[in-house]
Design goal:
With 153 residues, the chain is of the alpha+beta class. It is built from one helix and eleven strands; from the N terminus they run αβββββββββββ. Helix content is 14%, strand content 33%.
């Protein structure tokens, strides 16, 4: 549980840095048993899974672990550079095995913007029937990320 929590935390920090350096909008789609990273494609005005990148491939949690996402309703909008159209976020429910890799995938639950901002969120990673012993990853609109362990006071 600790390893999975710190893995996700570090990947979020890395993706946040990459968003700023590459001037690209990224997202994270969270499931009860894993997550995947996405990027916004301005040419098609849609989100797509990051492919061909070993670091940001979809990840399934170790057996017996679960995660719960609590995020503010996403009111962020990304305007297409070509058309000025906007896209809204939707949340996908289900497991990581249920993801559909078609073009124009739904918007991710967490957005990591090239401006350094991100969707405010709280992710709890826990063992089944032990949610009170969860590791918690917190993301703030300002781009700050924090991790809390069950051992923190």
């Amino acid at each position: 549980m600790e390893r999975e929590s710190y893995r996700m935390f570090q990947l979020l920090k890395l993706l946040e840095d990459e968003a700023i350096m590459q001037s690209t909008e990224y997202g994270v789609e969270v499931f009860e048993d894993g997550y995947r990273f996405m990027e916004f494609d301005y040419d098609n005005n849609s989100w797509r899974a990051i492919e061909g990148h070993r670091t940001y491939k979809p990840h399934q949690l170790a057996e017996g672990l679960f995660m719960v996402l609590d995020s503010q309703a996403v009111e962020l909008k990304i305007a297409s550079q070509k058309t000025g159209d906007e896209t809204d976020s939707e949340m996908f429910s289900g497991g990581i095995d249920d993801i559909d890799d078609e073009e124009g995938a739904s918007a991710p639950s967490i957005w990591i913007l090239s401006s350094g901002e991100l969707t405010e969120f709280r992710i709890e990673i826990f063992k089944q029937h032990q949610q009170d012993q969860a590791f918690v990853i917190l993301g703030y609109e300002t781009g700050e990320l924090e991790i809390k362990t069950p051992y923190d006071e």
